[in-house]
Amino acid sequence: MTGATGSVERRSCGVEFRAASRKLEGYAAVFGASARIGSFSETIRSGAFASTLTANPDILGLVDHDPTRLLARTASGTLKLAEDTRGLHFELAIPDTQLGRDVLALAERNDLGGMSFGFRVKDEAWPASDQRELRAVDLVEISVVQAFPAYADTTISARSRSTIMTPAQRRRFLETIR
What we know:
The chain is of the alpha+beta class. It contains 3 helices and 11 strands, in the order βββββαββββαββα. It has one domain. The strands form 2 sheets. Strands 1, 4, 5, 6, 7, 10 and 11 form a 7-stranded mixed sheet that branches. A hairpin with a 2-residue loop joins strand 2 and strand 3.
């Protein structure tokens, strides 16, 4: 089964990310994590973003999927995206705008809901009528989500340059908020 051609879908996930200096960093999607989307559960297969990361020259970094609330884009180098074994990793340079300052302040306070991504389905599988697996997608944008992520089993955290933690301290901190 394949998704409707041209329709953009959006998924949110409460993923871990950090605010360091004027950058946000973390995961916009996590492989293998199940999310309830209406009447079905959905997972993302490792490699689902691989072809779009090389083919799409301009993926946007937005707030709440709103194209009027632009934070960064891959074409300018202010948004960097890569797949690794965990998921879709991002690095986003926050602009010195009111929107950028607001997002950074919320991230530093750990008030943001998570990350999200907008996509078109290229390949999917339905192992059961209520289970969907995304195998390949055309990524359109990633978004900072202020509330209610769809992939709720992941975490979100913020870190500023003034509160540098050792890896062990960060691991303990993240375990307490999960």
